[in-house]
Every structure is written in C-alpha cells, then in structure tokens.
Write a structure and sequence with these properties.
The protein is mainly alpha-helical. The chain contains five helices and no strands. It has one domain: Substrate Binding Domain Of Dnak, Chain:A, Domain 2 (Up-down Bundle).
C-alpha cells in the first residue's frame, strides 16, 4: 500500500472521492514529477542539447503543473472542484504533450522512455480521477 493511500485511509475527514483512485493519482503525479525532473537533467547532459530543448521545457512545465495538482490533491478535506477540475485538465494536457515529446527521443535515450511512461501513467490516472469526481 502506498503512503498516499495510507494517509488517505488515516485521514479524519472522509472524502467523497474513491480513496483508491485518489491515491493512484497522487502516486502517479509524484512519479511523474520525479521522472520529469530527472529526465530534464539527463537531457541537459546529452551531446545533442539543441535537439532536447523542447523536451527540457515540457518536462519543466509538466513537473510544475503536476506539483501544483499534487499539493491540492494531498489536502483532501476541502476539495474545490472548480479548482481541481482545471488542474486535472492541465495535467492531462501537459502529460500528453510531454509524453509525446519524450516518445520522439525514447529510441535514443532510455531516460526519455522512462519519462514518457511516467507521463502516460499520470495522464491516465488524472483522467480516472476526473471521472471519479464527476
């Protein structure tokens, strides 16, 4: 059981959102932040740096959007769907863009392949949370 799930299960306030779906999204967001941060650092070490600029920027954007979403989802007492819904939509969009860009480099760079996988997983987890919240 993940720490996110343990925290949700131990939380004194019961959320209306399914705990498993919420924990899965939190875990995926955390993994995506970590993968994007590491990937952009690895991208900076590549010899073809000019080819990696778009990937680096998208990884930074993805990490930032996921971090904001993770912060709000980790405080489940008062979820405001007017705030959470657009954040989830932003996460889905940036994870798709970042995943697509990482996919372009995945055949040359294993770190891009791993980041693509994390972005795709996060995109899916955010979609599933969106459905669970509607």
């Amino acid at each position: 059981m993940s720490y996110a799930r343990q925290m949700i299960d131990s939380y004194p306030h019961q959320s209306e959102i399914d705990a498993g779906v919420l924990a899965a999204a939190i875990d995926a967001l955390s993994d995506c932040i970590q993968a994007c941060t590491t990937d952009l650092d690895a991208d900076l070490s590549e010899s073809n740096l000019a080819d990696m600029v778009k990937c680096i920027r998208l990884c930074m954007h993805c990490s930032d959007v996921c971090e904001a979403t993770l912060g709000l989802l980790s405080r489940p007492a008062e979820h405001d769907n007017r705030v959470i819904t657009p954040l989830l939509e932003a996460c889905i969009a940036i994870c798709k863009s970042c995943g697509d860009e990482c996919e372009r480099h995945a055949h040359m760079h294993a770190h891009c392949r791993v980041c693509e996988e994390a972005c795709r997983r996060c995109e899916q987890a955010c979609r599933e949370l969106q459905v669970a919240m509607s």
